[in-house]
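Before the break, one more example. Copy the sequence into your notebook; we will annotate it together after we see the structure.
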Amino acid sequence: MNVAKSGYRVFSANSTPACIELAKKITERLGVELGKSVVNQEANRETRVEIKESVRGQTIFIIQTIPRDVNTAIMELLVMTYALKTSCAKNIIGVIPYFPYSKQCKMRKRGSIVCKLLASMLAKAGLSHIITMDLHQKEIQGFFTIPVDNLRASPFLLQYIQEEVPDYRNAIIVAKSPSAAKRAQSYAERLRLGLAVMHGEAQCSESDMADGRHSPPCVRNSTGHPGLELPLMMAKEKPPITVVGDVGGRIAIIVDDIIDDVEDFVATAEILKERGAYKIYIMATHGLLSADAPRLIEESAIDEVVVTNTVPHELQKLQCPKIKTVDVSMILAEAIRRIHNGESMAYLFRNITVDD
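Here is what the structure looks like once it is written out:
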């Protein structure tokens, strides 16, 4: 396909090798060339973007992966989007496989919903559509005033389990907390496997974090109105750690959307080993693997961690051979092709229910 006749361009908004590699895989599948641009950081850490070809009247797809320096990546995306907008691009569509700040999508005490702020910034900069994958909460789509296609990585991870996990029929899908049970149930039903759920005081659910319900402080001003005496909420008391389900003599496959700080995963693996699981796999869409995650995984009872290439993690793979990568460029390329041609996206969501 000739680039000039295709009616669209694909650009990489990041100068890191991992982002360029993913962008090249996508453009190779589409049969187009990667758009010419320069993205760099000035000596004072300002982001500079230069578009090296005409984009007037074109539909532009910007591919942006999120490396460790997340804030720089966001600025690169915003500056490139605005540069394309002022260069008279017709439509600008962001391909952001891992949407940053997606964990900060709920109000926490006197904090803010940063994910909503970022959604507003991207729309204001000029994005008209976003393609992403496995949002931390599906409700994040409601933060946007532009269309959002939330693709799924589960078909690729399910295929990996079937092809690369020996004797996967003897496996059991594990949710490391009750909040992850819905995703685990989806995997278990598709693979026709059993389901186990970790529950107890060792787990820390997001809903247990301070969210402002204890604000303002209980100290009353004696000179003011005494206020109403509201019923006191009873404190939570979690039971001892338990595994709901039999994992003895089985392969335990823990599934989640993000693996970042791995302490919870390591602790879960230790408990599963104690309960008789003889192999432990972790399947996650986004492998952030921050801080000492590679070392902790290498020293743990975990046998293998499987993530997709939505987030660059080549350095972590060098530090820990247990980390494996699944390529999802195929579905990203197909989403780009369908959007450009005005085709239905329903094919990419076949057999996916509202609860998935």
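Residues 1-5 have pLDDT under 50 and may be disordered. The first strand starts at residue 8 and ends at 12. Try to locate both features in your own notes.
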